[in-house]
Task: structure prediction
Amino acid sequence: MPELTTNLYFGPWYRRSPFFEATRRAGCKAYDIYNKMYLPAEYDDATVEYKALDEGVTLWDVGVERTVQVSGPDADRLIDMVTCRDLTKCAVKQGKYMLVTAPDGGIVNDPVLLHVDEGVWWMQLADSDAGLYTLGVLSQTGLEAEVSYPDVHPVQVQGPLSGRTLAKLVGEAIYDLRYYWCERFAIRDIPVLISRTGWSAVPGFEVNLLDGSRGDELWDAILDAGEEFGIRPIAPNEARRIEAGIFNYGSDITLADTPFHVMGLERLVEEQDGDYIGKGALERIRHEGVDRKLVGIELTASAPLEGITRTWPAFHAGREVGRVTAAVWSPGLARNIGYVRVPIDLAAPGTHIDVESEHGHMDGTTATIPFVDPRKERPARPLRAVAD
Result:
């Protein structure tokens, strides 16, 4: 990411994850503020971290993914009300990439959802107040359910050697965990719930600590297990997530966007008999279409881009038509890539876009999202095959 020009003050008004002090000892150089918490943003050069993620095993403090629990006799109905996904088909221990929807179809948040037990669901949030939103919905329904913030704190163990690392801690059962499913384990008698999910679209897991007092113990246990594989703590990697078509809530997608305004999210507006918040608006938009779309962009720049500190204006035929919301150098693709929001008539791949950035003028071309592995075959493949 671009070099920081100011210091981040560590004050008591922002939450710290159970792994925060461990990240400082590991040499974290910069933090972001996310969900009113400190998120590690940089340990080493982004290309070095990308290589470790792509080829080995990495450890991330993502305690900022605040876990919101929906539980109780009517929990299934409540959670199904706040999303356009049909959760009547979501089994216990299964997960879903979820869109929380507003009455007008706007995206309130896009958490990973885990159906951890009968009548118990976890939304692991992107940066938003989706927990308070769900609590507000509950207050108007009369349903018998509870919305709470449990003692749950995720770290991600990501990379092709992540399975071998965790197998040393929980046994061969880790290889039986399917993509977007979860299971309870113990790591050195520390209770955890592990899901086969992650913000990287490489083989990986999220290890949810279920006792916030034991963050250092869990962090050190994972580092010890991964030592022979060269494990290293890293920050969420911008290049890898953009290659894979993963979005950042608040910049790439906002409350002003519906799933039909974002390439690839249309599939999550599932046709279903049940009602949910925003269903009428989304079915109307499905029929009428949208005026704009977030799509990919490939950029010609004089040097590899380190990231984006603000959205950049995008032009076509001399007229400003939209904004670039993300841009970064992709080591895997050896080119600069990102996302751009453009009118629907310019959204087809191959459209020329001029961009005025903080680094000067760039030529761009619209592209399909994701840039790689559209079927998510890499993170979903059998882990033993990855390990071998």
Remarks:
- The first strand starts at residue 30 and ends at 34.
- The chain has a mean pLDDT of 96.
